[in-house]
Amino acid sequence: MEWPKELLEIFDDPLLDGVRPKVSAPTADDRLNQKLTEVRNWIAAHGREPERSGDLKEKMMCAAMTALREKGFEIWTSKKNWKIYSTIRY
What we know:
The chain is of the alpha+beta class. The protein has helices spanning 5-11, 28-46, 56-70; strands at residues 73-78, 83-88. The protein has one domain. Helix 2 packs across helix 3 (56-70). The chain is elongated, with a radius of gyration of 19 Å.
């Protein structure tokens, strides 16, 4: 989250040294979006879905992709143009 420049200038005052606006914690939707982005980026970089038999990072991406699918996300690739698609099943 970006804070307005004017607010940050106020906190740069020496009297308020060490005081900063509280950063809000990411929501559940933010975490899901971040994980979906990570999986999509991994697929885009490697041209395939992650597998359980790969290295540690690939195993982590495979577990994340499995969890996302269990939550109702569909993740698939189009090899014709190497795009990654995702939707939520209801």
